[in-house]
Every structure is written in structure tokens, then in C-alpha cells.
Write a structure and sequence with these properties.
With 364 residues, this protein is an alpha/beta fold. It has a single domain, classed as TIM Barrel, CATH 3.20.20.80. The chain is built from 14 helices and nine strands. The chain has helices at residues 2-12, 20-26, 44-50, 67-70, 80-89, 107-110, 115-132, 157-162, 165-177, 196-210, 232-243, 265-284, 303-306, 324-359, and strands at residues 31-36, 58-61, 93-100, 139-144, 182-187, 217-220, 223-225, 248-257, 288-293. The protein binds (3S,4R)-3-hydroxy-2-oxopiperidin-4-yl beta-D-xylopyranoside. (3S,4R)-3-hydroxy-2-oxopiperidin-4-yl beta-D-xylopyranoside binds at residues 37, 62-63, 144, 221, 253, 302. Pathway: Glycan degradation; xylan degradation. Residues 1-18 form the signal peptide.
Length: 364
């Protein structure tokens, strides 16, 4: 009893700077992280938050490690953009992103048609990029977005040249280059309730594993819309479905955008509820290791560029003020952390009751 009270004190001391990542870890997750893009590095106020390990325990370069930015011409590698964000991560974890993807792919890869040529291009790319970051990446998104919403394979240059074998091949190369990194398949619209795409992703992961590839995790991007995001139950069911084939799950690129702007208090509260469902789902599933937001501040979100008229998807607004969603997420993490700290007591009580029940046959 005394011990539990003592353990709770450091969590609730007023004035202690302890935020999203601090409580996420106290609640049992490995990290609460964020993407950081190169364009934000000169913004001192933003960077003070991005560098705060209590706020974010993991950093993902939003663009710097992508193919177009690491091997713009064949065999010639550059890591300036990725390194600049890796420096921000410092001693913290990095979720590294991404090795084989159809977007932000330099034109020269599009003109490769033969299987053997594509196989060696993928080998060279993964080997050089992963070697450069070896030891710095908690995980790598090895293959990104290989499936369409209807469950069919995306007709990427990699698929065109090698069929689905490009997936197992990519993971095999990745495992040999940095055996310590967790290797993820990452995609969007797979954080929903079990649908054709979710089934197709699980099936392709299983087939690649059967072909000898190590795939440790499935990353669910979770670019969602306010008001139509999934409930905790749906999200949890989907994760349990994936958990049958991989050891880890993570929400990797979370943002929950308003589809109409400007927004009022009610929409902001709905956004907060939508974020909370996702956080609760991760906390409820043993294999869910962490949550990464696809930037934490609206001015660096990709949403307005990609979906004109939509946005304000992040936890902080353009003035770096915390939104209701931030406060709600933090409070869920704090409660989960407090429950976890108090858990031994609850377990002890449950055991005692069970013992009493077992000892008293009349009670059955
Ligand atoms: C986005 C970046 O945030 C933008 O800056 C860039 O212009 C396009 O890509 N899925 C992914 C991410 O896996 O890499 C994408 O990031 C968003 C969708």
C-alpha cells in the first residue's frame, strides 16, 4: 500500500515537465513519437518541443530517408536530409522511413523492367541506406503501401518487375544488413475495421514470412478524418487480427484531419475523441509498441497540400498551442500510467478473492 502511494508521487508532482512520451512509457508503450521534416529545423519554438524527450521518445524523418532523397541517381547516395533529422533524434529512438515505396521514387527506378535488374537495384538501395543508419533505427518501414484499397497489389515499378517477390526480397536484404532493427510493413487505411485491404496485407506478410523473410511488425499509418475515425473496439479487433502474424504493431503516421475548415469547439472536441480511441486501442493491445504522429504542429502537416481544403489534423495548432486533442490524449496516457502503477494491488486483490472462492465450494 505504502509502496504504491510512493510510486505515484513522481508521476503527479506539480511542475515536473512530463508529457506524452513520459506517460506513454509509464503506461507500458515503448514510445510516443513524431515525424519531423527538414523545413521545420529552423523554427526554434517548434524545435524546443520536438527535442523534448518527455514529449516525444521517437523521431521519424518525414522525407529525408526516402528513395528520391537518398539515391536520386543510380548508385549515388546522399544522406544530408535524413542525417539532419537523425541529429534531432539524438539518443532517442528513430522509426526509420522508408526503403521501398512507389512514391518519392526517382524516375530512373521507373524505367527498370527486368526482374534481375530490379532485384539488384533494391539490394543496393536497402544495403546502402540501412548501413548508413545502422544502429540508429529502432525500426525500419521496409516496404510501404504495396496494396490498393481493394486488396490487389499496387502496380508499382517493383511489382511490375518482380511480382510480389519484391516484398520478401526487400525484407531478406533488410534483415541481413541491420539484424537489430525491427522490420515493418507499413500502409494506410489498414487501421480501420477488418476489410479487403487488411486481409490482403496480413496474407502478403504471411506469404513473405513463409518465403523466408523476417517481418517483425505491421505499421498502421492512420491518416484519419474527424468524425469518421474508427472506434477503439474496431481498431483493437484489427490489431488482434494482425497480431496473429507479427510480434509488433504501431500507429506510425497519425493525423486526424478536419474535412471542412475553419472549425469550431465542437469539431475540436470530436477530434479529441477520435485521437483518444486510437490511443486507447494501442494501450489495449499487448503488441502495440507505440504511436507516432505525422508531425505535431499544423503548419508542418502534409494534409493541406495533399487534400486541399482539409487540415488542422495535428495535436498542436500553428501557434504551437495545445489543442483539446493533445490534452485528451495526455489524460488517457496519464490514467493508463496511474492504473499500471496501481496494478499490483488490483492483481493481489483478485488473487485473494479467487483463493477465497476456490476454498469455498459453496461459492461456486
Ligand atoms: C508525406 C510527407 O509528409 C510530405 O512532406 C511529402 O510531400 C509526401 O509524403 N504516407 C507515407 C509518408 O508513408 O511518407 C507520407 O509523407 C504521407 C503518406
Amino acid at each position: 500500500m505504502h509502496l504504491h502511494a510512493y510510486l505515484l508521487i513522481p508521476l503527479f508532482l506539480p511542475g515536473v515537465s512530463a508529457q506524452l512520451n513520459h506517460y506513454a512509457q509509464a503506461a507500458g508503450l515503448k514510445f510516443f513519437g513524431t515525424a519531423v521534416d527538414n523545413g521545420a529545423l529552423g523554427n526554434a519554438a517548434y524545435m524546443a518541443i520536438a527535442r523534448d524527450a518527455d514529449e516525444f521518445g521517437s523521431v521519424t524523418p518525414a522525407n529525408g530517408q526516402k528513395w528520391a532523397n537518398t539515391e536520386a541517381s543510380r548508385g549515388s547516395f546522399g544522406f544530408g536530409m535524413g542525417d539532419a533529422v537523425a541529429a534531432v533524434a539524438g539518443e532517442r529512438l528513430m522509426r526509420c522511413h522508408t526503403l521501398v515505396w512507389h512514391n518519392q521514387l526517382p524516375g530512373w527506378v521507373n524505367s527498370i523492367f527486368s526482374r534481375s535488374d530490379m532485384e539488384s537495384v533494391i539490394t543496393t538501395h536497402i544495403t546502402n541506406v540501412m548501413n548508413h543508419y545502422k544502429g540508429q533505427c529502432y525500426s525500419w518501414d521496409v516496404v510501404n503501401e504495396a496494396v490498393e484499397d481493394d486488396g490487389s497489389f499496387r502496380q508499382s515499378p517493383m511489382f511490375r518487375a518482380m511480382g510480389e517477390d519484391f516484398i520478401a526480397h526487400s525484407f531478406k536484404v533488410a534483415a541481413s544488413v541491420d539484424p537489430a532493427a525491427k522490420l515493418y510493413y507499413n500502409d494506410f487505411n489498414i487501421e480501420r475495421y477488418i476489410n479487403d485491404k487488411i486481409r490482403a496485407v496480413r496474407a502478403l506478410v504471411s506469404r513473405a514470412q513463409a518465403a523466408g523473410a523476417r517481418i517483425d511488425g505491421i505499421g498502421m499509418q492512420d491518416h484519419a478524418r474527424v468524425g469518421s475515425a474508427q472506434s477503439q473496439k474496431e481498431l483493437t479487433d484489427t490489431m488482434e487480427f494482425f497480431a496473429e502474424v507479427v510480434d509488433e504493431l504501431a500507429y506510425t503516421e497519425v493525423d486526424i484531419r478536419h474535412t471542412r475548415l475553419p472549425v469550431g469547439d465542437e469539431e475540436r472536441e470530436q477530434q479529441a475523441r477520435d485521437y483518444v480511441e486510437m490511443v486507447r486501442a494501442c494501450l489495449a493491445v499487448e503488441k502495440c509498441v507505440g504511436i507516432t504522429v505525422w508531425d505535431f504542429a499544423d503548419q508542418y502537416s502534409w494534409i493541406p497540400n495533399e487534400f486541399p481544403g482539409e487540415g488542422e489534423a495535428c495535436l498542436f495548432d500553428r501557434n504551437l498551442q495545445k489543442k483539446p486533442a493533445y490534452h485528451s490524449v495526455l489524460s488517457v496516457l496519464q490514467s493508463a500510467a496511474a492504473e499500471r502503477t496501481a496494478a499490483p494491488e488490483i492483481t493481489a486483490t483478485a488473487t485473494t478473492l479467487e483463493t477465497v472462492a476456490t476454498a469455498d465450494p459453496a461459492g461456486k
